[in-house]
Write a structure and sequence with these properties.
The complex is a heterotetramer, with 2 copies of chain A and 2 copies of chain B. By secondary structure, chain A is an alpha/beta fold. Chain A is 29% helix and 19% strand. Chain A has one domain (23-321): Rossmann fold. Classes of the chains: A alpha/beta, B alpha/beta. Bound molecules: thiamine diphosphate (2 copies), iron/sulfur cluster (2 copies) and magnesium ion (MG) (2 copies).
């Protein structure tokens, strides 16, 4: 059912990227999410980011866990091979895929339940390994697919449809990532594509684990008064004071510029991130201060968005492992198997 | 359950046919003594086995090493010993009980032995090793370590082992640490001389050199598995430490470092492998599934608790048809159980791993050589049948040194990657459907990410049709799961063939698996009357030969090392044989099963008193 | 697998004997229509069942509701319908196929029907409901919602349901929202009148009131489980949401809020329960194990994937002998499978949950009433046998409304806490050994933390002796695990007794479990020749009656809803019956099994062509 | 084997607590850990803290996971009922025990592998629930029981016995806890009982989840040069600038006082923590600054010890759940079961 083909509505001639592809070449099946679900905007933003960077659609490995958010890999980039895995384990499965083939552009999409409840341990350790991938949490503060229970990112005091308040402190993936030594932390809002697409492009260009938390309201179960993840709430409380943009060597900038102080950061692949920090002197590389900044803005009931933390010096999983530039999965067998002579030699010691 | 004295071992013919046991405290360096003795006997060309019984702690608790020497090849564990080297006061009482009547017990008479502990039917040999070492060595640590080496010297004298062979081994071990070497040599000599001067050396049972152990090696199963993974071309390993599986991956790390470092063009390091120590077993298998999905040969190793944690991901790999190799080095359960004791008790958990209708391919190696062979086979099977394959090893095979024929390798071997299509093949296809177009063995074409736009698809653990697309339609859903069942059955033909030894006029059959092989074979020789037939199961699903074997005998004994007759259960389910035909023989105390146990249990049932 | 028209339902005698199906789109409010119709028929005193077939998504995909009306009590699902209300253009084609020859199809002729879709053997009734609603209601949302209510009115007219009864229900539902009530009433009337004016009302098959449904209720299994947990005195619930188990705990929350708020002395809130939404299923069961260990009656509910994740902790609870109640509302596997479809495919996974030698107690309720009774029993069994008990419900029982006899409660009931010793008992003991002094059913005394210094001990999932002290000695270890096996067997006598209906001269037996009960009973009535015997398994371990039943028949059919014949496998293992005796009848497409399927599979094998 | 009775060495008359008990009344079986293992000192400190607070030995529920550290509940307080559970799940099992009986003094002992690798997710969520318990991580940077692999708390660059360096960033349970809204975070050193015992007492008196990270070197696998968790390293680098002491209403103070600025904090049960912050003005209640402080000291290669963070206002699991003062597990059945009349009433709605 999730495979309903998208209606082929005739459009104006579409812009082409460096590969000569249009945004439609990055599309997937028609979404079966609820009309107006924030996750569909996240999908669209991912699609645009991939297109904008002129990444060949088939070079993407798209993965997810389980949840409404985790259905989205079906809805973008049909040319890619994808893996809709099990609840909470996408970080591990993606680590394995990245290990086997370092040439893949690994894109993981998950939900707040998938990542911060059942998957928290596995996400935390994928962060530590600094697996090179874009990891998107489509964060709505609820379990959408199981019909609206609070997730671990529900804010204290936000109310479910049935009117019960959430009483537990939320897990902020940005603070969590910071405590674990994450190398790229950014937050966007599904309703603000102009900010989100550049963030995702920066994440795709990052040479390690890019954790992107996207506030993505659930229209069905968490878009009503009292919920701090509703469209209305997010629009009112979003702190759009830190903004990320990107000038990838592979493509052009497509988002509007914001005036203000700029920190220019060169990413692992040579592309540059222009980092606009409205609080004067905000340094995305100062781990200690980023933490207090996040705590402070949370305390004010505000959501800090933008590229929040960046560390471009830490080696990624493959660099730590000293693997070759080639893809491990199809190294020639001759290089892998020591052969009979070595086996005989080895056994000389066992006699 | 008293064990009967082995009839084949009359005391006059005890050369190269006896068992000894060394009782010690762990974390004091006794392992090197054990190796020294084992290695020396092995090099004298006499079949030998060593079983290390160690506690689940790091230092200070009782530990034992059992050595069985058997010219006739009966190197299964035995539970009665001709010589006991009792160096742990804490366990004297128990150790003395295990000496065979007419046997010998060596103890440290630096302290007097409680006379109550004496047994009139065995000979006590007291040697003041602690005192002797205290005189010769200065620090406490030296004294403890060197007492072990002195013990080796003493045992060498008693068993007529060539002391210069032991000495040679010390040279090899400590060539780069002359002071340590000198101390070791001195300790060895000290024990050796003390025995020669004070004891009736050699004892009536002892070792006589037969020749070099040509074509044989001494190896543990976990090393053999790791070798198999290297030779099969595994490039990704993911694991979480757990006894007794830890040394699988530790050996893989070591072997990869040795064979797989190929510096890249511009001098940068090029390790042709990536081994990830995961945060838990869920992640370990998740990584393996992800890596296999992306095309690598990947594997993980674990033991019981890890297998329990891996259930959900095993179900995912089964249903999405992603290869995955899992090595389960079984230990005594349930739960944490006895982590340093052996059982074969994960069969049902592995065969039907995960909720819903699932069945997996299992392989049962019986010794380290088969660990090597079956590991390579596991990768081929996983790739060919696009499904998890579990190598069911155990602690006895995995962590003890076994004497086996030298491993051989056919350099023309190339991995069987099954229907993993290359870019060209994919681009030649009219249409790629991940779960369409089954071959006669019900496998379907596979494509990895990153290759070509022609193969785009999304695999999923949710209900899907032949195109990998989500479905809730009964017919579309069933088309896939029916094929999975047929595919599983088809795999039987590709598993290592069962070992079938049918005997004319056999009164019954005996069925077993894995590390029960040696003790069961020995037991069969000890049974009176016409020899029973023998069947060793080597894998699951079972080929037709298994049902035929059962069919061909009025009844069979199923010998296994678990409480719940798990192999028998699988046989009942799969062959439809009635319960009457399959009689359980179950050993599950955590120590490797002995021949006398098997023999006695069969005898009891064949001739009930 | 075409279904045969039911012979008992000749078209002239179709009053109170027919089936209808409503095809819709989910998330559009059709559930209230379904309830309205179902409830009305129920109140007319005619046996009725409703099966909700919904997709695993939140909005916009096809969803169906099947209603079977059967005076003779045959309320199992059927796959051929006398009336199809096809309100979803996406599924017209498929829906039309499911109408029985001679049946009727209602569709919305606001849009024309593709003539190719017509079938000559059924009657098409077009009603422009969308148009009518568009005229009457203003907003899109209203129009969508009210179209559903109009449909209910239309169906009421066709089936001769009393419209004032439907109207009364609307009043009850919307009494506090007058505008909504008015709209609903208008829509109901609109559909009702349209049908009366344009269609041959009532249809030949329709409902005639029989009387009040005295002593019967309409309830879903998950609510019944939650009720059982409240009545059994459960105070701690831990869970992780998963379809179709979610409503177990959501109902428990609701019921506790209703019955368990007892304000404390100084006015502070006193909720006599604590329900924790855990972060995953491992934690959910971990919490239950901890709470049970500390003395509470605690439980969790889940479905397949959760069961896989709970394996390790189930093994822990088994071996440490801590009670734990787990409700598994089974859905179609493997892996994520079809979360909104039914199967009974977790039997092996639950019975042998976790590595090592483990076996658990399972209960198989066949309807919501048994969900209630067996849940209470599960707590008693868990306490008495100090072990996990798994209630094997399924999506069909758990999430559909079933008509069952009213639940009753014996106010003299007190929880059977087994050998959970109180402080005084403990202090009277000479010596407390947690796993010592087994009673005739092999259970041992238990003490919770915090009571008395006389009961200090440390339970552990590692090898232990009768004192709960760590051991690696085979004899000490075996003493405990042998007792566990005996204890498990002893539990058989305390499980709900199997339903055995032995018939003289029965040509064979039919064995089944759980939600297969109704369709199998119906199928038996449809079989020609002497009536077969019937056995419904209600729990595991099996009492002797099960083996006796199999023994007493030349062969038996085992009807179950999974691919791998999992109940049959358990029977083969436990009764030793040979495979020839037990013939599988397997339905596993994800929809509740029908009588005609069972009948046809048996007929095929009894009289092969 | 782990049950070897402790040798009854005659001692000087032992001091008695308010219950008239001596420290020996809180002892357990003889340890089977390696001679010199830091974990034995942790055991001793727990024992002393329980004794010092005059907690009746049987009121303790002691729990653990799996590991050398997790064996320790056998080695203290034999009068208590304990649960040596499975690897990584102690936090969940302890949550359940605390739920069933709020009168228990719940003491959990775990290792860094148990808590920060396999158990990270479950620990994180027990922190969020604010289960009232003392949770001790006997942290040695290695998996002791499985013979010396790096754990998630191994420092970058520390070397294993085989000489391999650890390359992954360590998980600092204090920073992690802070990011999750923990209410009590403290760190000690197994070799410094004078500091550790008061910390544990404070934790035992805390009205919520008290997470205590104890550096507890493994003499077997991680007490050699290159390891940052060795005795030598910890002694040299410990930052003993924040110190906790406690004046429980149930007992006397038994640790030495350190001069310096004092923040007096009243704990949930009325006892007081005297908080000595050597960096002038250190406020254990300032979440944002505590974070930067921890990041800063880690950056300097120093280990901050003492009571690091305290929040005495957040309600604990039982308060959040609105449970009564009684223990849930033995509430009278009459209060729990609605009875037949209510059942009939309930079913009226189902007709
Ligand atoms: C092991 C397991 N437990 C529970 C579920 C049921 N489940 C499916 S999705 C989901 C939560 C999804 O929440 P989130 O990740 O936030 O995604 P959303 O639907 O909100 O986008 C749950 C609990 C499951 N599929 N597997
Ligand atoms: C599920 C599972 N996986 C692996 C193990 C093996 N195991 C036992 S202890 C341990 C690590 C313990 O490390 P830590 O918690 O740091 O304790 P330490 O021994 O260092 O005190 C592991 C991996 C296990 N018991 N269970
Ligand atoms: S339920 Fe919520 S999260 Fe799920 S598809 Fe609908 S709007 Fe999106
Ligand atoms: S191995 Fe290390 S952690 Fe374990 S007991 Fe020995 S010293 Fe302690
Ligand atoms: Mg969500
Ligand atoms: Mg540790």
């Amino acid at each position: 059912m999730t495979s309903i083909a998208k209606p082929q509505i005739p459009l104006l001639p579409l812009e082409r990227n460096e590969l000569g592809l249009t945004i439609r070449d990055y599309s997937g099946s028609m979404s079966t999410l609820c009309a107006g679900c924030g996750h569909d905007s996240v999908t669209a933003a991912i699609q645009e980011a991939l297109w904008g960077l002129s990444i060949p659609p088939y070079q993407v490995a798209k993965l997810s866990g389980i949840g409404c958010s985790s259905k989205t890999p079906q809805y973008f980039d049909s040319a890619a091979v994808g893996f809709n895995s099990v609840h909470g384990r996408m970080a591990a499965v993606a680590s394995g895929a990245a290990a086997a083939n370092r040439g893949l552009v690994v894109v993981g999409v998950s939900g707040d339940g998938d990542s911060l409840s059942i998957g928290l341990g596995n996400l935390a350790h994928a962060v530590r390994r600094n697996v090179r991938m874009l990891y998107v949490i489509a964060n709505n503060g609820v379990y959408g697919l199981t019909k609206g229970q609070f997730s671990a990112s529900a804010d204290i005091g936000s109310r479910s449809r049935k009117g019960e308040p959430n009483l537990l402190p939320p897990v902020d993936p940005m603070l969590l990532g910071l405590s674990l030594g994450a190398t790229f932390l950014a937050r966007g809002f599904s309703g603000d594509k102009a900010q989100l697409v550049p963030i995702l492009r920066a994440g795709l260009s990052h040479g390690g684990f890019a954790l992107v938390d996207v506030m993505s309201p659930c229209v069905q179960f968490n878009d009503h008064e009292g919920s701090t993840k509703s469209f209305r709430y997010v629009r009112e409380h979003e702190l759009q004071d830190i903004d990320a943009d990107i000038i990838p060597v592979r493509g052009q900038i497509h988002s509007e510029q914001t005036p203000g102080a700029v920190t220019e950061v060169e990413l692992h692949d040579g592309s540059r991130v222009l980092f606009r920090a409205v609080p004067e002197g905000y340094d995305p590389r100062d781990r200690g201060r980023v933490g207090s900044y996040l705590v402070e803005s949370a305390r004010r009931g505000e959501i800090a968005t933008g590229l929040l933390y960046l560390d471009e010096t830490t080696p990624d999983m493959h660099q730590l492992g000293g693997t070759p530039e080639e893809r491990l999965w199809d190294l020639p067998f001759e290089r892998l198997c020591p052969g009979s002579a070595e086996l005989a030699k080895f056994q000389a010691r066992l006699r | 359950m008293a064990e009967v004295q082995l009839p084949e071992a009359p005391s006059q013919a005890r050369v190269n046919e006896f068992a000894l046991k060394l009782a010690n405290v762990n974390g004091t360096g006794s392992a090197s003594t054990n190796n020294l003795l084992m290695q020396t006997i092995f090099r004298m060309g006499v079949p030998v086995s060593g079983k290390n019984l160690f506690p689940s702690n790091i230092q200070g608790l009782p530990t034992w090493y059992e050595v069985r020497v058997s010219q006739s090849g009966h190197t299964a564990r035995t539970s009665s010993f001709d010589l006991m080297v009792a160096m742990n006061g804490q366990t004297y009482q128990q150790d003395i009980q295990e000496v065979a009547s007419g046997g010998y017990l060596v103890y440290d008479d630096s302290w007097p032995l409680d006379p109550e502990m004496r047994r009139p039917d065995i000979t006590f040999l007291g040697a003041p090793l602690a005192q002797l070492c205290a005189q010769r060595f200065l620090t406490v640590k030296e004294r403890i370590l060197m007492k072990n080496v002195a013990t080796a010297g003493l045992v060498a004298a008693l068993l007529a082992l060539p002391v210069d062979e032991l000495s040679k081994q010390l040279v090899a071990a400590y060539s780069r640490r002359p002071q340590l070497l000198e101390d070791n040599q001195a300790a060895l000599e000290l024990g050796y001389q003390h025995a020669r001067d004070n004891f009736p050396c050699p004892l009536p049972f002892h070792v006589e050199e037969v020749g070099a152990p040509d074509g044989r090696i001494l190896i543990d199963g976990n090393t053999a598995v790791a070798l198999g993974a290297v030779f099969a071309g595994a490039t990704v390993g993911a694991w979480y430490p757990i006894t007794p599986a830890t040394s699988v991956m530790e050996n893989f790390i070591r072997l990869c470092a040795q064979y797989r470092r190929h510096p890249g063009p511009d001098g940068q390091e090029g390790r042709d492998y990536l081994i990830l120590q995961a945060e838990d077993e869920l992640a370990a298998l998740g990584i393996v599934v992800g890596a296999s999905w992306a095309g690598a040969r990947a594997f993980t190793s674990t033991s019981g608790p890890g297998l329990s944690l891996m259930q959900e991901l095993l179900g995912l790999a089964y249903y999405t048809e992603v290869p995955a190799v899992l090595v389960d080095v079984q230990r005594a359960g349930p739960s944490t159980g006895m982590p340093t004791r052996v059982q074969q008790a994960d069969l049902l958990s592995a065969a039907f791993a995960s909720h819903g209708d699932t069945r997996h391919i299992l392989l049962f190696p019986s010794d380290p050589r088969e660990c090597f062979l079956h590991t390579v086979r596991a990768f081929d099977l996983a790739d060919r049948f696009q499904t998890p394959v579990v190598l069911m090893s155990d602690l006895d095979i995995g962590m003890n040194d076994w004497e086996v024929p030298e491993l051989t390798w056919d350099d023309s071997y190339r991995p069987d990657r099954g229907r993993l299509l290359g870019t060209e093949e994919l681009e030649r296809l009219e249409q790629f459907w991940r779960y369409g177009d089954p071959d006669p063995e019900w496998t379907t074409p596979r494509a990895v990410p990153g290759e070509t736009p022609r193969a785009g698809h999304l695999v999923r653990g949710s209900g899907h049709d032949f195109r990998a697309i989500y479905t809730e339609r009964p017919d579309e859903y069933q088309e896939v799961v029916d094929r999975l069942l047929r595919k599983h059955r088809a795999a039987a033909a590709h598993l290592p063939p069962p070992v079938v030894e049918r005997r004319e006029g056999a009164p019954f059959g005996v069925i077993t698996m894995g590390s029960c092989d040696l003790p069961v074979r020995e037991a069969l020789e000890q049974l009176p009357g016409p020899e029973p037939s023998y069947l060793r199961i080597t894998g699951y699903p079972f080929p037709p030969a298994v049902a035929e074997f059962i069919e061909a005998h009025p009844h069979c004994y199923v010998v296994e090392q678990n409480r719940d007759a798990q192999l028998r259960s699988l046989l009942l389910i799969e062959t439809g044989a009635g319960g009457e035909r399959l009689r359980p023989v179950l050993s599950y105390g955590g120590l490797p099963v002995t021949a006398s146990f098997v023999r006695d249990r069969i005898l009891e049932q064949e001739s009930p008193q």
